[in-house]
Write a structure and sequence with these properties.
This protein is α/β, with parallel strands linked by helices. Helices cover 49% and strands 12% of the residues. Strands 12-11-10-13-14-15-16-17 form an eight-stranded mixed β-sheet, with helices on both faces.
Length: 720
């Protein structure tokens, strides 16, 4: 028998093989149709007396990638409005089905031939034995916490009962994933075999075992290592809560809900534990955190990587040879990642020695991977062989793509562009890596402005996932398509923005840093500013960020903007403070003193002298108001960028803010954040903050109009 999604076959020994093979999809995903198909197979096995056991495997390269989060996009907003009883039943549906599977009365083996994550691994947990193929593509785990959810189909109940609560916590709380051999060592799978032996091993196990009862269904079962109240285990929940406060400041509800599922559920029989898990799943599904994180970090990110802004009608482009101009840290990082993706790179600098130094960046990075056993020496050598350091532009005559990452100065970039125009082929795209200089302005130096585009990589370029693509006024559709194909080749996530000073990410993070340094001049305690930023979810405090980047760089950037754009330039609130530190020689971490004093061990403390130059107010603002100010000043700036047409879609702003400049992931990005607060409530709060702290927090007309019209950025009421 074949259902639409699961192929069902029974052999002469009475072993049923259920091959998961969702038609029309590259991966098996769990949606209602998948669940109906699995339910039909369970009923078929149950009714057939000749069936002694079953193997669940996949007809695709991966096993099951988890819930159909793309399908969930349609339900994200519906969840918030659904009656709680209906939401509970919806959240419990897969859990109930897997309970039916494991209590079928016939033994089941999961034959894991590829990635089994989330609900896919929960299917494996509901089987009586798990065998994984020894292949690099096999990965098991429960990553739901990373998108603001919890494993809701038994993961929080079965894994602790299988390997013990203490052992299970990292996989549940942090979403840790393991390859086959490591998964066996950790107890997440029972056996690992060669890929071609997978189904043979599964059959052999079934022929040798007829027990169809899970250990937790046997009378007298005890959780390995002790239950939640066991003195060996109980302290982990106390420590866990403290760690959550220190790491997430309770901005992320999922880890706390996961802890609660384990603590409450593992004191009870499995069926009651599963109901508790479904209850917490329903609670989380309603929170704006889960909705925002799913929307941005999964749905929108996937759409961006699949080319949602790629112009249609152009042949796919593959870069075989890349010209990389500028062998500093940025250029060296881009060269490394391109070489890792099989692209030949000519790494050019003014002198051969500088270019060779850029290649050393790749040598050191690859040596670390080899030392850690994450790459073979042969593969590292092959990657290095693809990077040719040089000072000769003639080597670029047959380049498919050139990225220029020289100093952020228009005159220097103009000189490089003219040199490149003399050698590049008519089809070669020239991309400028810049964080703020308008692309249309830089393209004026080129004889081919239609083949000119901005690609803003983030440092370190070999690790940071985002590329901000800036379309100049004359950038052609063909050029944009080629640039997006190149980013896909690098396996990075693109956002596409229109050309305006600061683009999106620089002005977005700039609004935060400028306002925060302005707070110092207002007499707000620096430690309060830094701690409120961390409590709001920013990865680093704004004063610490500025010290890391250096005070002189901040000063130069401001002066450069004032010189280049005298008509548009408005002096930031931070400029007098930056100038003061510069004049005092406090240039940041690199000289051991900036907003902080740094000692030789690397530890730091706020410079006491700041208070002499900027005396503290006697009455400090509340921590709540400062946290709101930090989030709102960025969200308001994001809305201004939308109003000015810099952003093509709210998705670009949400992805760019989180992956590029560290806006808190729990918000889903500024536009998910505004939707989550509610437009009328956001406008009212921004107005309140503007009255307290200044016009930089005043919401733009766009938000007022949306609030009046009952519009949102996403969902059924989204503005066009």
């Amino acid at each position: 028998m074949t259902t639409d999604i699961i192929r069902y076959a029974v052999d002469a020994d009475g072993i049923a093989t259920l091959t998961l093979d969702y038609p029309g999809k590259t991966m098996n995903v769990i949606d209602q149709a998948f669940m109906d198909s699995l339910d039909a197979c369970i009923e078929r096995m149950k009714a057939d007396a000749t069936v002694r056991g079953g193997i669940i495997t996949s007809g695709k390269d991966s096993f099951v990638a988890g819930a159909d989060l793309m399908g969930m996009e349609a339900n994200i907003d519906a969840m918030a409005d659904m009656p709680i009883e209906q939401l509970f039943e919806s959240c419990a549906s897969l859990s109930k089905l897997l309970r039916k599977l494991e209590t079928l009365g016939k033994p089941l083996v999961a034959a894991i031939n590829g990635m089994a994550l989330g609900g896919g691994y929960e299917i494996c947990l509901a089987c009586h034995h798990r065998i994984a193929a020894d292949a690099p593509t096999v990965m098991v785990g429960l990553p739901e916490a990373q998108v603001g959810l919890l494993p809701g189909a038994g993961g929080t109940q079965r894994l602790p009962r299988m390997i013990g609560i203490l052992a299970a916590l990292p996989y549940l709380m942090e979403g840790k994933q393991l390859q086959a051999v490591k998964a066996k060592e950790a107890g997440l799978v029972d056996d690992v075999v060669a890929p071609e032996q997978l189904l043979v091993a599964a059959r052999q196990w079934l022929l040798a075992h007829d027990s169809a009862t899970q250990p937790w269904d046997v009378k007298g079962f005890r959780i390995p290592g002790g239950g939640p109240l066991d003195p060996r285990v109980a302290p982990a929940f106390v420590v866990g809560n403290t760690m959550l406060q220190a790491k997430t400041f309770h901005n992320m509800p999922a880890p706390l809900c996961i802890q609660s599922c384990i603590y409450e559920g593992c004191q009870l029989p499995i069926d009651k534990g599963l109901r508790i898990e479904s209850k917490y799943m329903a609670t989380l599904s309603r929170s704006p955190v889960a909705r925002g994180m799913i929307r941005t970090l999964f749905v929108n990110k996937t759409k961006a990587e699949k080319g949602m802004h790629r112009p249609a009608g152009f042949e796919p482009f593959t870069c075989r040879k890349l010209g990389m101009i500028g062998a500093g840290m940025m250029g060296a990082g881009i060269a490394l990642v391109a070489a890792q993706r099989g692209i030949n790179v000519v790494l050019i600098d003014r002198e051969q020695a500088a270019a060779a130094k850029g290649k050393q960046y790749a040598e050191k990075a690859l040596a670390k991977l080899v030392d850690k056993g994450r790459q073979t020496r042969e593969k590292a050598d092959a990657i290095l062989a693809r990077i040719t350091p040089s000072a000769d532009y003639e080597l670029l005559r047959d380049a498919d793509m050139v990225v220029e990452a020289v100093f952020e100065d228009r005159a220097i970039k103009t000189e490089v562009t003219k040199k490149l125009d003399a050698v590049l082929s008519p089809t070669c795209v020239l991309a400028s890596n810049t964080s703020a200089l308008p692309i249309s302005l830089l393209a004026q130096a080129s004889e081919r402005p239609d083949r000119f585009i901005g690609l803003h990589f983030f440092s370190p370029a070999d690790k940071m996932p985002l590329v901000e693509v800036i379309r100049g006024k004359q950038t052609s559709d063909a050029t944009l398509a080629q640039a997006l194909d190149f980013i896909a080749q690098l396996k990075k996530t693109p956002i596409v923005v229109n050309d305006k000073r600061g683009f999106f990410t620089s002005r977005f993070i700039g609004a935060f840093v400028d306002d925060a340094i302005g707070m110092v001049a207002e007499g707000i305690a620096p430690a309060l500013i830094e701690n409120c930023a961390k409590h709001a979810g920013m990865p680093v405090g704004p004063l610490g960020i500025t010290d890391e980047l250096s005070i002189d760089l901040a000063k130069h950037a401001g002066e450069s903007q004032a010189k280049e754009f005298p008509e548009d330039y408005k002096q930031g609130r931070s400029v007098p403070v930056i100038n003061k530190l510069f004049d005092l020689g406090r240039l940041g971490r690199k000289v051991g003193k900036g907003f902080y004093d740094y000692d030789e061990s690397g530890s730091k403390r706020i410079w006491p002298g700041l208070a002499e130059h900027y005396p503290l107010k006697s009455l400090q603002p509340s921590a709540h108001d400062l946290k709101q100010r930090i989030l709102y000043v960025q969200a308001v700036e994001g809305a201004r960028a939308m109003e000015e047409g810099v952003l093509l879609a709210p998705a670009d702003g949400d992805i760019g803010s989180i992956l590029g400049v560290g806006f808190p992931a729990y918000t889903g990005g500024p536009f998910c954040f505004i939707d989550g607060v509610g437009l009328p409530q956001f406008v009212a709060e921004a107005d309140r903050l503007a009255e307290l702290f200044g016009e930089q927090l005043r919401p733009p007309q766009l938000l007022r109009d949306m609030a009046t019209k009952g519009q949102t950025f996403y969902g059924k009421t989204a503005r066009a």
